Amino acid sequence: MIKYILKRLMYILLALFVIVTATFFLLRVAPGNPFASERNFPPQIEEKLNETYGLNNPWYIQYKDYLIDAATFDFGESMKYKARSTNDMIAEGFPVSLTLGIEAMLLAIGFGVLIGVVAALYHNRFPDYLATTFAVLGISVPSFILAGLMQYFLAYKLQLFPISGWKGFTYSILPALAIAFSHMGFIAKLTRSSMLEQNNSDYVKMARAKGLGKWTVVFRHTLRNALLPVVTYLGPLTAGVVTGSFIVEQIFAVPGLGKHFVQSITNRDYTVVMGTTVFYAIILLFAVFIVDILYSVIDPRIRLKGAKK
Question: 209 pLDDT exceeds 80?
Answer without folding.
Answer: no
